[in-house]
Amino acid sequence: MSASELAAAVTRALDVDPEEFHTNAREEAEQLKTEVRSGTFDNTEAIVGMELELYAVDDQTDALRRVPRQLLELIGFEKELGLHNAEMQTSPQPLNSHGLAAQRNELKASLMPAQQRLGTEGIRLVSDGMWTVPPNGETAESYLCDAVSEDGIRIGTNMSDAVRYHTMANTDYPSAFELDAPHVSLQAKTVMPEALITSIQPHYQIPHAPDLPEYFSYALRVAAPLLALGVNAPFFPPDLYDDAPAEEILEDAHMEHRIGVFESVLNPPEDDPTPPKVCFPPDFDTVEDAIDDIVADDTIVPMDVQSGTRFDDAFVHLRHKHGSYWRWVRPVFEGQTRSAANARIEFRPLPAQPTVDDAIAFEALFAGLMESLPRLEHPIQSLDWETAKENFYAATREGLRADIEWITADGATTTSTDELYGELFEHAREGLEQRGLSAEEAHEYIRPLRERVDRRLTPARWKHDSVRRRIEEHVPLPEAIWGMQSTYIRRQKATLLDGSFVDWFE
């Protein structure tokens, strides 16, 4: 799509009557509530799925690479925000031994030929929380901030041609478009700085849709310990740092800057009264409350959406609203057909992981907990919401070193890392066995994450230790970060499909 065509499409999107759009969404929400209560969105069993985001690098220099759109389509991946991004989604599968194996095999079956085809162009896909090496001959700041004006419409130069991304930079919604992190400050004119980060998103479909609030409350309370296990983004591209000593940057680094990037780029500035869209969500008393929360959320781009042949096109305006309902854990109601209609929880805090098996380990851990905790009526559900939120942001800063408050099965409150994760892994194993996995299978899925706790070593801590060692050897910070990144990519190349992060330190 040319710049003029893209600008024209953005202009058409901006001409949509927001009041009419919101009226349609509210009416669809009432219809959705009726369908949910009538059993349309129930499943006979729990279903799992996964989204995996990656970024592309030059296979020789590790520098960020733009992926030609035709090439992206050829390898069967979807475009994301940046021209360097690629995304894939697994097919939903029943939560059992065959379903989890199918999830793992589908990821590997798609990634192997994709890497081979891209390799002929000197490109490699990387699974990581944040890239740190900008394209050859460019700075990270210029790559993230370059924009042009076409017919009065602001267009990000390095963003994909999805109309909604560009429309977001031209609406009245007051997104800050900035990076706000320790020793990092950047002001852009589009949402492009959000393209620094990549994630995995496990999905869990609720067997009985009206029970979603109960499952959701447990998902909020395990968000912190799972995030603390998965942290993988302690460093920015070096040219984004302010002029500060390397030791201070190391000392003040968060173990998971992805959370702060998403929030500071897309939310309004702190002094703006508009409610944030990227946030830790509330508990819901009923499934209707969850639907109403989506309806009440600000719509950045109320586009002219048309109904098609999907079953959930009956809720097409509500589905469009949901696309910018950016909660760290969020409810989803959709289905291409009536028989496939489902209510699910998307678990969104996790950064992309070093290997496929690490990503699947998180999917199994989250799903196992969603099976066991509600069934056991585990007392962690009684953890105060404010405490759950504080736990979550502590995990972004400190990873496994965070003092996460947990309530054990016998009702005791603890901040012991070993006690928390010992119980968490045990309940996840029980949940997986409840779905037919053998004890050995359940253990093997969770083992890579248990090893992280035993060794107190996450991908972010591995990166931080690597950069610290280089700094202590008097290597300048940029070279220290890039050296760490080169080692990360090299080790991932050997283990992405046939190994786990545990192999990096054995």
UniProtKB/TrEMBL annotation:
It comes from Haloarcula pellucida. It comes from the Archaea. Signal peptide: none annotated. InterPro entries: GCL_type2/YbdK_subfam, GCS2, Gln_synth/guanido_kin_cat_dom, UCP012666. The lineage of its organism: Archaea, Methanobacteriati, Methanobacteriota, Stenosarchaea group, Halobacteria. It holds the Pfam family GCS2. GO terms for molecular function: ligase activity, forming carbon-nitrogen bonds. Gene3D superfamilies: 3.30.590.20. This is Gamma-glutamyl:cysteine ligase YbdK, ATP-grasp superfamily.
